Amino acid sequence: MALGNRIRYYREKAGLTLDQLSERSGVDVGTISALENRNSSRSKFATPIAKGLGMTVEMLEDEHQDLDVVALMASPIASTLSTIGVPVSKSDAPPEGYVRLQHLSPKPSMGHGAALAEPVHVVQHLDVLESWVLQKVGSTDYSRIKILTGCGQSMQPTIQDQDLVFVDTAQRFIDMPGIYVLDVCGRLLLKRALILSTGTLVLKSDNSTEFPDEEHIDLKTAGESVNVAGRVKGWWTLKQG
């Protein structure tokens, strides 16, 4: 399926009109329509259109994947992707037994929160042992798993400062207590989270000695200011000898 067909496919799958995709991507309606109708194989507008659909050009052009475009567009992290620095050609496949994951630029704070000061982009592509991903992360849809760098000491000793965390960005709600990446009033946090029966979101740190305070948020009145960017499914900690 060439680029034009894939743009139309994902636009319709997302339930977007031409006008809506134009607004999300910044590309003129006529240009998008022309790309779809002449079924173009490549275009300089592919990057902003892909970004408007919550994905990268590589994701848009990959004919072997049928992505959940609605989940990608809903994620505050995934929806703003724009691949820079390390483009990957289709011929550059990961070694056998490995899967290729995106390491994104945001560094969620294991502390008081960090604002997203610049657009999200792909820092690097990492080839990870597939059996490890299946065992620790538990997903065969690798496009939804993103790698972020955690910063701070509030989750010690569980997660250390500068650890690489594997985040399921399709997990858009808190269904059980766990460690999540959340956008709370513009602050990107990596915290342990649970929702009480009263509708109160509780955010707390594992390092209760240095960070004893818990944050309680009433979701009935502050639901729009709290967005789940994903659930942390695993992490890498470097042990120094």
Descriptive terms for the model:
single chain; 241 residues; alpha+beta; 434 Repressor (Amino-terminal Domain); Umud Fragment, subunit A; 2 domains; nine-stranded mixed β-sheet; two-stranded parallel ribbon; 8 helices; 27% strand; globular
Write the layout of secondary structure elements.
Elements (H helix, E strand, L loop, with lengths): L2 H11 L4 H8 L3 H10 L7 H7 L4 H5 L7 H6 L23 E7 L4 E2 L11 E8 H8 L7 E5 L1 E2 L11 E5 L9 E7 L2 E9 L4 E5 L10 E4 H4 L3 E11 L5
Parallel strand pairs: 1-4, 2-5
Antiparallel strand pairs: 1-3, 4-6, 6-11, 7-8, 7-11, 8-9, 9-10
Helix pairs in contact: 1-3, 2-4
Description:
With 241 residues, the protein is α+β, with helices and mostly antiparallel strands. It folds into two domains: 3-66, 434 Repressor (Amino-terminal Domain) (Orthogonal Bundle), CATH 1.10.260.40; 98-236, Umud Fragment, subunit A. It has helices at residues 3-13, 18-25, 29-38, 46-52, 57-61, 69-74, 130-137, 219-222, and strands at residues 98-104, 109-110, 122-129, 145-149, 151-152, 164-168, 178-184, 187-195, 200-204, 215-218, 226-236. It has a nine-stranded mixed beta sheet. It starts with a helix and ends in a 5-residue tail after the last strand.
Compact description:
The protein is built from eight helices and eleven strands.
